[in-house]
Amino acid sequence: MAEMIAPALAGTKEIAPLENPVFISDLHLAPEHDKTLMQFFRFMKTQVPYYSELVILGDLFDFWLGDDTISSAESVVKALAYASSIGKRVLIAQGNRDVMLGRDFAAACGATLLAPEVAVKCIGKTILLSHGDEWCTKDEEYQKFRAMTRDPQWQLSALSLPVEKRIELARQARAQSETTKGSKSAAIMDVVDVDVYKAAKAHNADIVIHGHTHKPASHELADIERWVIPDWDLDSGEGKDHWGYIRTVNGQRLQIIM
Question: Which residues does the annotation say bind substrate (predicted)?
Fold first, then answer.
């Protein structure tokens, strides 16, 4: 029996240049989010074939209990595996909601699992890819939680628990998160530009693309560009349905589509 690799250690830091990618994140797919799920399947069928690479920068799922529960996401896996089978490179990063995604899930999708921060060549520049939550450094409480859930030993201990126990822990974490969010300002939960800038410089990157904040936009940070991918939500029932992605245009620039 192969030794279990903690998801935190399973991602690769080196990938070949991107030729014509589309970037998505924060879909928060779950069985109860049926409209968002259907939009994902439409996107996979009608949009992804026009691109060379599909890059998913975290929170593909609303929660992920471990790769041993992969049967619960069979339709999503099949859609990603089909994209891979027709020659699309599928690259997946873990988010804060699906930090336990591992090698088995990536293999089932024919995908490559990414490390938390990966620099890659694209549109003639170096782009730093990340979910982005590591840069929400003003939220000290969240950073402690993030460090715990990305600790390899913590992950292996969690994965050794019965699925029912993991579900219970996930529900408790979600309830606590929703409670604490109400007492935090938007600024506290956003990324800190200086930390994004430092990370970009450490990777010799010209551009940063991330998700997590649900604030799609492009920003100028001195000589660095910061692009935020749109989140997806078609199930809120509040008339605020939205989804989107970032793509390249003519191999020269980035564009947000919403």
Answer: 96-97, 139, 177, 181, 184, 212
